[in-house]
């Protein structure tokens, strides 16, 4: 059973979510009304998944820095889901996914099912992509001891992992549903933008390899077979 930390003074939201999680028998949850209370209780270690209602339980800059420090101590870093907007110190490097009110409970549960698979993945699992070693759990690319690892965003990592798991072209609609959950706020260029950024990171250095994403018009996206060997 996986542990989910809930940070929110909204008792109705936490109760509804906890009841739904019990039915799936995958998550055990604990509720805290503020980040201060939660971090005090998690003094030894953070849970693998944290859902924080930053709108109703905001924090100051000092606490944001402390929260970031605690996340840095985790290997791999806890997955942080935020309702509302987190301080900039956390938003850029630590927030995995952000939700807005009104929150659709069914949509949140769908996303938790996705993150369940991510959390259950062993931290030391690595996938070979051309000259790179890809660690989905830590969201980093490593290259034969050359330079610092390249950090991926949550969506970049999820997208790359999803495409690696299949060997046939995946449609744009399937990727949007799997990675973004058909979020109505996603614009038409979101997927293409993430593919573009991933391509730049993976093909940095001018390696003599074909385009990492073998795309044919109308056929969707896939990882070129030569990048898997």
Provide an overview of this structure.
Helix content is 38%, strand content 17%. It has helices at residues 11-24, 35-41, 61-72, 88-91, 105-120, 154-165, 172-180, 190-202; strands at 2-7, 27-32, 49-53, 79-83, 95-99, 127-129, 132-135, 140-142, 150-151. Helix 6 (154-165) crosses helix 7 (172-180) and helix 6 packs across helix 8. The strands form two sheets. Strands 2-1-3-4-5 form a five-stranded parallel beta sheet. It has a four-stranded antiparallel beta sheet with strand order 6-7-8-9, with no helix packed on it. The chain starts with a strand and ends in a 27-residue tail after the last helix. The longest helix has 16 residues, at 105-120. The chain contains eight helices and nine strands. The model has no long low-confidence stretch (mean pLDDT 85). By secondary structure, the protein is of the alpha/beta class. A hairpin with a 4-residue loop joins strand 7 and strand 8.
- Assign the structural class, choosing from mainly alpha, mainly beta, alpha/beta, alpha+beta, or little secondary structure: alpha/beta
**Would you tell me the overall average pLDDT?**
85
Number of helices: 8
Largest sheet: 5 strands, parallel
Radius of gyration: 18 Å
Shape: globular
Low-pLDDT regions:
none
Number of strands: 9
Biggest β-sheet: strands ordered side by side in the sheet: 2-1-3-4-5
Task: Please state roughly what percent of the residues sit in beta strands, choosing from under 5%, 5-15%, 15-25%, 25-35%, 35-45% or over 45%.
Answer: 15-25%
The SSE string, one letter per element, is EHEHEHEHEHEEEEHHH
User: What is the distance, rounded to the nearest whole angstrom, between the alpha carbons of the first and last residues?
Assistant: 35 Å
The share of residues in helices is 25-40%
